[in-house]
Amino acid sequence: MQFYRSFLVVSLWEVAMTGAVSFSGAWLWSIRTHVTGIMLYYLLWFGTMTVIFAWGTHARKTPNPIRLQTSGIAMAMAYLAAFLMLASWIRVLIWLIAMMVGLASGLYWLAVYVRAAQATYNHERYNAWLGMIETGAAVVIPPVVGAVIVASPGLRGYRLTFLGAFILLAVALSLTLSQASSARDGDAKAERRAGTTWLLSRPQLPFVGLGLLGFRDGMLFFMPGLWLFMLTQNAAVLGWYLTCQAIVQTVMFAASASRWRLPLWAALSAGIIAGGILLRWHTTSGIFVYGILNAFGYPAYKVPLEGRALSVIQEWSTDAQERIRWTSLKEFWLNGGRLAAFVLLFLILAFGASPLPTIRWLLIGWGGVSFALYYSIRRIGESQSSTGRR
């Protein structure tokens, strides 16, 4: 029963945050925030998340995952309340709001993955189902939110979106609090292999891969959509773009859950072809095709990397304290990669580069990151095979 309740909480979180987060960049652009201000928003967001996970790697006390999750949801509600109350004044406190989003996301996802690491089910299938929830919400929510924003005068559509997200998170918070009275974190022991240390060990291979995945997706999650909104000034177009991406990703995650996965070479090829298309076809249609092609690769990279990382955490951690530290390290790599992508873009734009051409050329060349991802996942597979032979 707790397993299904946890998935219900995850679903509510995804629906709420998909609507709010997907259009926060559009909101900031609509209230005339400069593009470097928007980049600063994302930079501080993922920087704060990275700090949370760095803290988790050195936590001296074992935090309760349910308390972490509760704190994350409550902070997300505070962030949504700030958007509702401050309206266009939000750009004055953009640094504070970004840190609130990062704190909320960091605490929430740390709790989700700590609880997943202590479970006994197949971790690759778990991440496939988790991905289906995430992208399934993105299929439905963006076009609905985009239509509401377009149909509403001024900023009313955005406010309705943030209010709806706030209500959904309130339900998720009540469900999480109800678990606190009955849930107890298991401290199942796992035998540690001899001759290794916590920070310097071969099982960190999937964590390095997650860092590369974060670096790739730090750019691809937000920049094509922001570029599209800059060109069209139409939230409904942005909503349909996000939905097209989500449909592809949901199908790929569903295939992974049924034990079929897109070959890595196919995911790599799709990313390279996407860059070639954007080289010649940098219109609204070109951005749509670019996003759809890159959407094929995300599940192909994420499922094996996340699944292997969770298995490593379960295999190598000896108690709840180490499980927190390993999970924090995993998320530190992933969000550190995203942060590095935003730092790169922020520095380029801050030194006077024209936003639209800069974003275009970065997206064209970003397929090169997939080569490193491909190599990293192949190395993990080889490492697993050699371990099995021994």
Quick tags:
mainly alpha, 81% helix, globular
Short description:
The protein is 81% helix and 0% strand.
What is the strand tally? 0
On the 0-100 scale, what is the average pLDDT? 78
Low-confidence stretches: 184-202, 385-390
Report Rg. 20 Å
- Helix-strand topology string: HHHHHHHHHHHHHHH
Share of helix, binned: over 70%
Silhouette: globular
Oligomer: single chain
H/I helix tally: 15
Summing up helix and strand content along with how strands pair, one would put the structural category as: mainly alpha
Q: Main β-sheet: number of strands, strand sense, barrel status?
A: none
CA distance, first residue to last residue: 39 Å
Q: How large is the share of residues in beta strands?
A: under 5%
Provide an overview of this structure.
- The protein has helices at 2-22, 24-30, 35-57, 65-86, 94-117, 123-151, 156-180, 205-220, 223-232, 235-257, 264-280, 284-316, 320-350, 355-365, 367-389.
- It is mostly helical.
- The radius of gyration is 20 Å and the shape is globular.
Task: Give the secondary structure arrangement, pairings included.
Blueprint: H1 2-22, H2 24-30, H3 35-57, H4 65-86, H5 94-117, H6 123-151, H7 156-180, H8 205-220, H9 223-232, H10 235-257, H11 264-280, H12 284-316, H13 320-350, H14 355-365, H15 367-389
Helix pairs in contact: 1-6, 1-7, 3-5, 3-13, 4-5, 4-7, 5-13, 6-7, 6-10, 6-12, 8-12, 8-13, 8-15, 9-10, 9-12, 9-14, 10-12, 11-12, 11-14, 11-15, 12-13, 12-15
